[in-house]
Design a protein that fits this description.
The radius of gyration is 28 Å and the shape is elongated. It has a three-stranded parallel β-sheet with strand order 1-2-3. It has helices at 2-6, 21-25, 27-37, 61-70, 86-111, 128-137, and strands at 11-17, 43-49, 74-77. Helix content is 48%, strand content 13%. It is α/β, with parallel strands linked by helices and 141 residues long. The longest helix is centred in the last third of the chain and has 26 residues, at 86-111. The chain has one domain (2-100): P-loop containing nucleotide triphosphate hydrolases (Rossmann fold, 3-Layer(aba) Sandwich). It has six helices and three strands; from the N terminus they run αβααβαβαα. InterPro entries: P-loop_NTPase (IPR027417), Rab_GTPases_membrane_traffic (IPR050209), Small_GTPase (IPR001806). GO terms for molecular function: GTP binding; GTPase activity. This is Ras-related protein rab11. It comes from Anaeramoeba flamelloides.
């Protein structure tokens, strides 16, 4: 059932709150579910949100950075309330997805075999209606 939800996804945002350690602790579970059910080439960005609430912070920047590095994820911290790095996060993941698709297209194009220009294919026009009439008038077959 979950695979249908993730099917065809090119990118995913894995978001936790920097003011709630539990949301950070649960990242491993969410990342496992995501990887088990999504395409293998999906681009994943880890986002630490609510950096505007610095006084209540429970998860430090280096913890997010380390998790991202260990799991081969892009990483950024944001504040949705103040719109800090929100647009940049989306532009960043979209750029990564675009670059991956571009590389994939190039590698696919390189693997395509072309028909040699010295070989020719000759097409002839045939009158199938007359051929059927000739077959039908001559006997059993």
């Amino acid at each position: 059932m979950l695979f249908r939800f993730y099917r065809g996804a090119k990118g995913a945002l894995l978001v936790y709150s920097v003011i709630e350690r539990e949301s950070f602790v649960n990242l491993g579970k969410w990342l496992s579910e995501l990887r088990e059910n999504s395409p293998k080439d999906i681009t994943i960005m880890l986002i630490g949100n609510k950096i505007d609430l610095a006084d209540s912070r429970e998860v430090l920047t280096h913890e997010g950075t380390n998790f991202a590095e260990e799991n081969n994820l892009n990483f950024i911290e944001t504040s949705a309330k103040e719109a800090t790095n929100v647009e940049y996060a989306f532009l960043s993941i979209l750029t990564d997805i675009f670059e991956k698709n571009k590389k994939k297209e190039l590698s696919t194009t390189e693997n395509v075999k072309t028909v040699s220009s010295s070989k020719q294919i000759k097409l002839e026009e045939r009158d199938f209606k007359n051929e059927e009439q000739k077959k039908g008038s001559g006997g059993c077959c």
